[in-house]
Structures are given as structure tokens and as C-alpha cells.
Design brief:
Blueprint: H1 8-17, H2 22-40, E1 43-46, H3 48-63, E2 74-78, H4 105-112, E3 116-121, H5 155-162, E4 168-173, H6 179-185, E5 188-191, E6 211-216, H7 219-229, E7 258-262, H8 272-287, E8 291-295, H9 303-318, H10 338-349, H11 352-365, H12 370-391, E9 397-401, H13 417-421, H14 428-433, E10 436-445, E11 448-456, H15 461-474
Parallel strand pairs: 2-3, 2-4, 7-8, 7-9
Antiparallel strand pairs: 1-3, 4-6, 5-6, 5-10, 9-11, 10-11
Helix pairs in contact: 2-3, 5-6, 9-11, 9-12
Length: 485
């Protein structure tokens, strides 16, 4: 049996049947990482001894009939989510030696469910980027084509799943950082509704937009992982109570489901192969009994501008603590001038994209420009919320491309920030609107994966997972794997 080819659900069943042990499964993934990660660059650190100890404990639990939902299943964690006793860099030099002193709520929940932690995954520095080229440590490569980016900022998370270097991972999504890399790497990525998953222990980028979510091989796997991490948390006042999703209910037929296709998402410049793949997916949904409706979201064209003003403004505040005194490495050089220490530490420890966004945000929040930029952005954000509320009175879900192109070449957009930002043009609105969204594989263009995005009203994770699962069962795109051996 090729245990590395199994998905999360199948591996859990195999452990329950005792077809293999968690130690065997974990050793297989550790060997795979050692063999392939030198050319993929998905992991920033591999916690081998911890993983083997957790696997041994899991096997004991299974033998005693105490198997939980994730017992013995090897996972990876984006390196912006804290794991006690493990280095957490956020992809930044300024935190090169930081070791987390506590578990993020989602990590604690995974541990409580018996998961095995393989290591921490690469990302754009402090989750700022769309290609994982902004990491201070390495550039992650796309398993489908090593000269292409895996997307970002959760590029390491998506690449690890696509390259079979773990069963599933956790990423974070602020403007598409789960869905865009999921599309580029041909895996499933779920951005839950804001507030359904605790952000306690997530290094904040944009606190009003950040959301932790799963990247996995199948829709059902993403639902299993979502169930494990969702729920109210006393440490995060923005969280809500949530009921677990019954995995069997995701097989319910979707006859009569109303699916809206926003005309604004089919813009000039979209790759023609992506357009064809999405049109084919729409036809597939019609065959499955769904009712397709054309809808309009005219304010969506402003979402990217609203996002970058909002995000940069919150970044300028959230990143202020990394000053070499309170947090982060200090570049004192014997200086007794506190301001000089701040400036030297931040200049040496923060990358160019982080500095760019800090400056943009500080400018937008300054006394002379707050009303002109930040305040106006929040007004438009409210209107985008309302626009989504109105359209969801007519349809159950929205369908669109996840990205306007397939994975681009490494270095192709690195020197042009605006061109890079446009990679998130379809994903950003869901974050601005506070709704849930998922990306699932729906085709290929010149050997590179294409992703389809389904968006649902707030707290409608079950609806979008149901629609995504039924589509997945009717197609075989999720079964395609990158050839790396």
C-alpha cells in the first residue's frame, strides 16, 4: 500500500484498521521530506523527534481503543502559528531565534485530537505576499513546476500537501493566502468565516481580516480539519460558537441549489484556459441539478484597493512591536540611543515588502490623510458587506475563478508589487465581506492546476463544502498528482 498517496480521511481509517501504524506513517513522511524538500523548500523546520514521540503515543491510544479524529495523522503548520517549544519565525529574520512559549488555540486543538506535528512551513514574511518569494529564508517552489511559485502567503503549506510531504496543513488567509496557493498547487483550501476559528497564537498581520484555515487533498479532508479547529475561544473575543459539520451530509445532492456567477469576475486579462475551465465547471453544476444565475457585484472592483489600505494600516500597528526591544533580534551595536536601536533592528530584520506596507499604512493613518484614505476605505468596506448580503438573498453560493492566471514563474512579478497584488483580485472580496470561501481544483492549463472558488454567506461553511464535495466526486481533478520522483 502506498500510504503516502492516502488522504487524511483514508489514512485515519487505515490506522483504525491497523493496516499500518502512526510511527510507520510518520517515518514515511519524514523520509519523503528528507528526499524532496531540498528542491521544494516547503519546510522551515522539521520536528522529527517530536513527531515520532507523538506518533508512538498515538499508536498506544489506538491500541487502547482511544482513537480521536486526528490521532496519529501527520500534519504541517504554517510558521506564523505558534507551537510551544518550537521556533516560530513568521518567515522573518527579526524572529530568527524566537521559540514559542505557548500553543496557538488551533495547535492545542490539533494536539488534543492526537495529531502528529511534522514541522513548520515556509511563508511570505509575516504573511505579506502572494508567491512565498518574500520569505527571509528560502523561496518555495511549486511541485507541479519547479520554476513556478506555489502562491502565497501559505505557499509552503500548499506545496507540502501537493508534494505528499504531509497529509494536510494549516495556513492563514488575509486576502486569499490559503485559496490562491491552493489553486496554484492543485489542492483544496478553505477560508472559514471570520470568527469561526480562533486567531489566538496567530502572529497578526491584519487583525480584522486574518483567518486560519486548512489546506488538504480533498474537500472532506478540509471539513475534518475545520471541525477540529473551529469553535469559540475565551482567548479570542471575536470567535463564535459553531456546530461540527457532519461529514456524511457533504454527500447530499445539490439539486435546486442556486449558484450565482458574478460577471465582474470574468475580466479582461483572465487566462483563456481558466475561463474555459470555469465555464466547464458551471456546466458540470448544471448537470448535477444546480440552478445557475448571473449576478452582479459592481463594488468588487474596489475590494483590492480597500484591502491594501486596510491591511497596510493594520500592519503598521501590528508590526510595531518588532523593534528589537520588546520582540525580535536587536541590532544595538553598542548604541545608547533607543531610537537608533529601533531603526537599526527594523532595518536589518524586516524585508522590503514588510517595510513597504508599514510605510503605506503609516501614511494612510497619518493625520492629514486618515479621512482621505483609511476612513473612506472602511465606508466602502461596509458597502461591500451589504452587497454580499444582498446577493446572498438571491443565491446560495457564488462561483468564480480563484485566480486570474495559473502559477507564474519565480521572479516574474517580484519586482512589480502592483502586478503581484493583482494575483489576489478574486480572493480579496471574501475577506473584505467577512464571508467563507473555498478553492477546489477544476482543471489544468499547460500542465499547471486551475482553481475554482466557491463563496458562501457568513457561517455557510457546510453549504460551500457540500457544493465543493459534490463537484469533486463528479470530477477527477483532485486525483491528479505532481510527478516528483
Amino acid at each position: 500500500m502506498d500510504i503516502l498517496g492516502l488522504n487524511l480521511e483514508a489514512a485515519g481509517q487505515g490506522l483504525k484498521r491497523k493496516d499500518f501504524s502512526s510511527v510507520e506513517l510518520t517515518k514515511s513522511y519524514l523520509a519523503r521530506i528528507k528526499k524532496l524538500d531540498g528542491k521544494i523548500g516547503a519546510y522551515l523546520s522539521v520536528t522529527e523527534q517530536l513527531a515520532l514521540a507523538q506518533a508512538e503515543s498515538a499508536d498506544k491510544q489506538i491500541s487502547e481503543g482511544q482513537q480521536k479524529g486526528l490521532t496519529g495523522l501527520p500534519l504541517g503548520i504554517k510558521d506564523v502559528i505558534l507551537q510551544e517549544g518550537v521556533k516560530c519565525t513568521g518567515g522573518s529574520k527579526i524572529l530568527d531565534n524566537y521559540v514559542a512559549t505557548y500553543d496557538a488555540t488551533v495547535v492545542k486543538k490539533l494536539k488534543d485530537q492526537g495529531a502528529v506535528m511534522l514541522g513548520k512551513l515556509n511563508l511570505d514574511e509575516f504573511a505579506m505576499g502572494s508567491s512565498t518569494e518574500n520569505s527571509a529564508f528560502k523561496k518555495t517552489k511549486n511541485p507541479w513546476a519547479l520554476d513556478r511559485v506555489p502562491g502565497g502567503s501559505s505557499g509552503g503549506s500548499a506545496a507540502a500537501v501537493a508534494a505528499d510531504m504531509c497529509l494536510a496543513t494549516l495556513g492563514s488567509d488575509t486576502g486569499g493566502s490559503i485559496r490562491q496557493p491552493a489553486a496554484f498547487c492543485g489542492v483544496v483550501g478553505l477560508k472559514p468565516t471570520y470568527g469561526t476559528v480562533s486567531r489566538y497564537g496567530l502572529m497578526p498581520m491584519t487583525s480584522s481580516l486574518d483567518q486560519i484555515g486548512p489546506l488538504a487533498k480533498t474537500v472532506r479532508d478540509s471539513a475534518i480539519l475545520y471541525n477540529a479547529i473551529a469553535g469559540q475561544d475565551a482567548n479570542d473575543s471575536t470567535t463564535f460558537k459553531s456546530n461540527p459539520i457532519e461529514i456524511s451530509e457533504l454527500d447530499k445532492d445539490i439539486k435546486g441549489m442556486k449558484i450565482g456567477v458574478p460577471k465582474e469576475y470574468f475580466i479582461d486579462g483572465m487566462d483563456s484556459e481558466i475561463r474555459k475551465a470555469i465555464e466547464s465547471a458551471v456546466k458540470q453544476y448544471e448537470k448535477l441539478g444546480a440552478k445557475i444565475m448571473d449576478v452582479s457585484l459592481p463594488l468588487s472592483k474596489y475590494a483590492l484597493a480597500v484591502y491594501y489600505i486596510t491591511a497596510s494600516s493594520e500592519i503598521s500597528s501590528n508590526i510595531a512591536k518588532y523593534d528589537g526591544i520588546r520582540y525580535g533580534q536587536s541590532a544595538q551595536d553598542g548604541s545608547k540611543d533607543l531610537m537608533a536601536v529601533y531603526m537599526k533592528s527594523r532595518a536589518a530584520g524586516l524585508g522590503s515588502e514588510v517595510k513597504r506596507r508599514i510605510m503605506m499604512g503609516t501614511y494612510a493613518l497619518s493625520a492629514g490623510y486618515y479621512d482621505q484614505y483609511y476612513n473612506q476605505a472602511q465606508k466602502v468596506r461596509t458597502l461591500i458587506h451589504k452587497e454580499f448580503d444582498d446577493v446572498f438573498k438571491k443565491v446560495d453560493i457564488l462561483l468564480s475563478p480563484t485566480t486570474p492566471s495559473t502559477a507564474f514563474k519565480i521572479g516574474e512579478k517580484f519586482e512589480d508589487p502592483l502586478l503581484m497584488y493583482l494575483s489576489d483580485i478574486y480572493t480579496v472580496p471574501a475577506n473584505i465581506g467577512g464571508i467563507c470561501a473555498i478553492s477546489v481544483p477544476c482543471g489544468f492549463a499547460k500542465g499547471l492546476p486551475i482553481g475554482m472558488q466557491l463563496m458562501g454567506r457568513p457561517f455557510a461553511e457546510k453549504t460551500i463544502l457540500n457544493a465543493a464535495n459534490i463537484y469533486e466526486q463528479a470530477t477527477d481533478w483532485h486525483e491528479m498528482t505532481a510527478k516528483l520522483d
